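Exercise 7. Predict the structure of Amino acid/amide ABC transporter membrane protein 2, HAAT family from Shimia aestuarii.
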Amino acid sequence: MRIHFKTSYEHDIRLFPDWWTFFVYATLIVVAVLLPWIMDDFYLGEVTNVLIWAIAGLGLMLLTGQTGQASLGHAAFLAVGCYSCVIFMEQGLPFLIAFPAAGILTGIVGTIIAIPAVRLHGIYLAIATIALSILTDDLIVLMEPITDGVSGKFAPMITIFGIEIERWTTPDRFYWLVLAITIICTLIYRNLLRSPLGRAFAAVRDSEVSATAMGVHIARTKAASFGISCGITGLAGALMGFYAGAFNNETFSIVISITLLMMIVIGGLGSIHGAFFGAVVVAYLPQFLSIAKDAIGGGGVAIPGLETGVFGAILILFILFEPMGIYGRWMKIRIWFELFPFARKDMFKRQKSYLKTERLR
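Solution. The predicted structure, encoded as tokens:
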């Protein structure tokens, strides 16, 4: 069992708790960089899909898992990021400018929407964001001169310093691009949690009344969380557009919003690892169901709603038996082995109490 001896306040906000943790993640990055030489293009594309979903999960995780604000409308911000990036590139901007500009634009849109939305709580905020997701579908159709309506758009070729990157013709280059963006977004998320703003997010999540007593401006903190969350989500939306190659108003439906929320719940709310674990489930579940159907001899039979039903059943099982998600289960197993034979049976018993200050809401 590793014991961390802390001799200063800086040790509480270190990027890595110890050198072993740094070595583990560095090794993981090296393996990720070498994947194009290890697996074929099909599985490399699936890993790329996992990384894109993980970026989207990080965006929603910041808002829902870290700040405690439920959102069922993040598909709208995926659409804003996707369309804005492609439109910027069609206007002649290079990818290195259009891509971050799409994220910034999406963050600004999210902040503007958050100004009235931060006054809502719980189910009312979820209903408002659902309405936003539905409204975005209609707006894409109404803005046909810009978005091409139901006909949709085709993602242009990405060119960086003369190097052409495209998902189908150069899957390895596209994978490395997505991997680099994933690492950057993860570092931004991790450093944000170490900052005073990240601690304010956690304070708002745990108790708004207590956070106000400590001097946290609730509305401003929620708006900042919404804006940053939408910015990261917009980057994921742009990558989804390049991954799909073609998209229209039906690509970013409300089902994507619900899937995104269920993904972070299954992965583990409030943790970076949870976004990646949930992304693995979302990306590989269709492949697993396809393999399972072939194994039982029903590969040629289409079962409507099978994927959604299985995903919903998995979510129900996690809510009932493991509310902390996959990452929570992994933490329990690891701690149990680290404390063995001193681990107690009720060590991870769920707490039924809650802050009395929340009764005032």
